Amino acid sequence: MSQVRAFLAIDLDDDLKPKINRIIKEFKGIDTRIKYVELANLHLTLKFFGDIDTNGLALLEEKIAQVVSDFEPFDIRIKGCGAFPNKNHIKVIWVGIDEDSIIRDLHDKLDKEFTKLGFDKDKKFSTHLTIGRMKSAKNKDKVRSVIEEYDDVDIGEMKVEKISLKKSTLTPSGPIYEDLTVFEL
Predict the structure, then answer these.
(1) What is the pLDDT of residues 130-163, one digit of tens each?
(2) For the chain, which domains are there?
(3) Is 128 an active-site residue?
């Protein structure tokens, strides 16, 4: 039985990456341990599947195609910076999505179909792009200060025209993402 580590995502437009990179550089100026997401890997996760049997990919792709056929391309605004679980206990640093009702609708309809295939229903869904994971509390106050400085930053707008089922291969230097199937809206 062959397996693949997979997730469903919206890739970030390349023209928005320099603005996010400027925010990342602010964090890099702090003496702390943060593992940053490579700019090429920035994405909004719609569903993380984990390790799945490759024999089930066709059925999964069929369900995704059914749901996305009901959606037209739509615009989103990348805006704001924050932390999970919160600014006092920083594990994940993210940039957000403003006015995310269409993404939430897309996620909910996809998640409903995925539960029919045996996947767990998402307990919480948050529209965000992870930019880094904090590995220690060293200089947490400085990190929190940068998060607050960019709390309302407007990174820009992009049109979502496709979503991608991706394969994630974990390596010592970080994950490698490959598109398995791209679904046009």
Answers:
(1) 999 999 989 999 999 999 999 999 999 999 999 9
(2) 3-184 (3.90.1140.10)
(3) yes
